[in-house]
Structure formats: structure tokens, C-alpha cells
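for ur thesis appendix - PAS fold domain-containing protein. copy paste whatever u need, i formatted it the way the template wanted (i think)
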Amino acid sequence: MPLIDLVEDDSVEVAKKVLQVALRGKEEKNIEIKLKSFSNQDSNSSIILVVNSCCSHDMKDNKVGVCFVGQDVTRQKLMMDKCTCIQSDYVAIVQNPSELIPPK
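the 3d part is after this line
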């Protein structure tokens, strides 16, 4: 299965760019890529990776491949999204001029 078939639609262009840059010999660091999940548990979820890429060379310095090293940050990302949502709700409540909400 080609790598692009594993990548979520909103990350395809990023993945292609990282591959092209790596094949030119330039490393990329801390790039976020979303992969499709084939788990039976959560069909709508994707896996979020932060990846570094580099080009592999043979002994004659010919480019022979691209290497990705990634870290799964799915849970951290979901927690940060929840915290951001809760924070915005809190700010909205505190800044609400309604008298139904008691003052601090």
C-alpha cells in the first residue's frame, strides 16, 4: 500500500512536500502528519504524528530512500484541544455581564 493511501486527506500535501524535500537531501523536523486509523474502536479518529525526515544514502552517496522518525502525539493533541475549549468557555462565563452569574 502506498504511503499516501495511509495519510489523511488534509495531510497529503504536507507528506508529499516532506518526501520531495527529503529526496533532495534536506532534513525536515517537527512536521505534523495525520494518518488514517484502521482500528475497530474509533472509526472517525486519525493518528497524529510529529515526524522528522531524512534521506538515506548508499556508500557512493546515491540517494536510496527516505527515513521518517515519528512520535505519536494524538492523546496530547486531543487533551490540548479539550483544554482550549474549556478555557474559552471559562473566559466567556467570566466576561459575561449577566447578573445571573455571581461576581468573583
